[in-house]
Write a structure and sequence with these properties.
single chain, elongated, two-stranded antiparallel sheet
Length: 127
């Protein structure tokens, strides 16, 4: 009998916690809806700044991807050379066309993924 009372109390506590959690989630959702439907002037300005940053990021990625595509189109792989320079003026040069092709392919793939991700962020962004 005592075990049944303890189990009932535990179950009641679980139900109460679940109800409190649900109430908190509903309150948070209604606050979020209010912020979306009735944004303040400062909130709109901040969101506009964020959207502008996303637009700048997309423009830079698009520009770099276009430069890489143009470079690949004009590259005949006979006299190609890649050079990396560090902060201490140390240089590392690669002239193997196969290695350069693999590196550029990887860079292009990364840029395309960044472009897709940024486009999705801009589309999903809500002012």
């Amino acid at each position: 009998m005592k075990d049944l009372k303890i189990a009932a109390k535990k179950e009641a506590a679980k139900v109460e916690k679940a109800q409190e959690k649900k109430t908190a989630e509903v309150q948070k959702a209604s606050t979020t809806v209010d912020e979306i439907l009735n944004p303040s002037a400062d909130g709109r300005i901040k969101k506009l700044e964020t959207l502008n940053r996303l637009a700048e990021k997309k423009t830079k990625i698009d520009r770099k991807l276009d430069e890489l595509v143009n470079f690949n189109a004009s590259n005949d792989c006979t006299l190609s050379r890649m050079e990396f320079t560090g902060d201490s003026s140390y240089r590392f040069t690669i002239s193997n066309p196969v290695t350069i092709g693999k590196l550029l392919g990887q860079v292009e793939q990364e840029l395309r993924q960044l472009k897709e991700q940024t486009e999705k962020e801009i589309i999903d962004f809500q002012i």
